[in-house]
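Internal tracking record. Fields below are filled automatically when a chain is submitted to the structure queue. Please do not edit lines marked as system-generated. If the sequence contains nonstandard residues, flag them in the REMARKS field before resubmitting.
Queue: standard
Priority: normal
Entity type: single polypeptide chain
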Amino acid sequence: MNIGDRIPEILGTDQLGREIKSSDYRGRKIILYSYPKANTSGCTAEACSLQAHKDELKAAGYEIIGVSKDKMETQKKFADAQGLTFPLIADTDTRLLQTLGCWGEKVAFGRRTVGILRTTYLVNEEGIIEKIFSPKEIKTKIHAEQILDYIKK
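SYSTEM-GENERATED OUTPUT FOLLOWS
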């Protein structure tokens, strides 16, 4: 997906078994971020950065939704262990990840694999993508600050 595209209506099922729809967030902005694997160092740092700045992001009108290929049970354990209070979508069939364009070939440790490309989409109140943070832009430990800096511009 690109800037100006509307995100899908059905986003998926979160760690609590709730179906998450984009229409549930109409009138609010969304930080929709994809991460490769729950409970890994980079993904934990990114999630904790967003959680730590959740109130500031909410004050700017944003809700946070994470998505990875992890199973619902894994997402729940991750959320519980890190104190995450936002939805984590269990996209086990990668349908949403593929639609968003954050599923593809990547190189890790000199190996080519297919998987989740860490990406963040800032979505407006109407469900339209306004900004995309690419994998190369995202610094996991300070990702929330990156988003806040962009919002304040």
